[in-house]
Amino acid sequence: MTPIVALQALVTAEPLDIEPSAAELDAIDREMPLIRAEVELLDTQIMTIDHPVNELDERRIRRARNRVLAARRDLTNRAGTVQSGGAA
């Protein structure tokens, strides 16, 4: 029987401990309020999985959704002012 071996070099020849660049870390920092708001919305939705949604749960979900929308709006507005050079 003939063994089957790869005839090509490995695709991932570099080590996998590549760190994010400073620009990538800055982008994550800019998006962190949105990430937190989305996690909070997800937590709120998870809390309501195992029981019927009551009025208090509806308020929590609505507030969490509003925080996500506000964070998206702020992030979008900030990105627009950076790209346009600060002139609005």
Question: Any descriptors?
Answer:
mainly alpha
What can you tell me about this protein's structure?
- This protein has 88 residues and is an all-alpha fold.
- The chain is 62% helix and 0% strand.
- The chain has helices at residues 22-47, 55-83.
- It is flat, with a radius of gyration of 23 Å.
- The model has no long low-confidence stretch (mean pLDDT 85).
Output the radius of gyration: 23 Å
Major sheet details: none
Note the run of SSEs as H and E: HH
**Total of helices:** 2
Our estimate of the beta-strand percent is under 5%
Give the class from helix and strand content and strand pairing.
mainly alpha
| Number of distinct beta strands | 0
Binned, the helix content reads 55-70%
Instruction: Give the N-to-C terminal Cα separation.
Output: 73 Å
Mean pLDDT: 85
Shape, principal axes of CA atoms = flat
Unreliable spans are none
| Chain oligomer state | single chain
Short description:
The chain has 88 residues and is mainly α. It has helices at residues 22-47, 55-83. The protein is built from 2 helices and no strands.
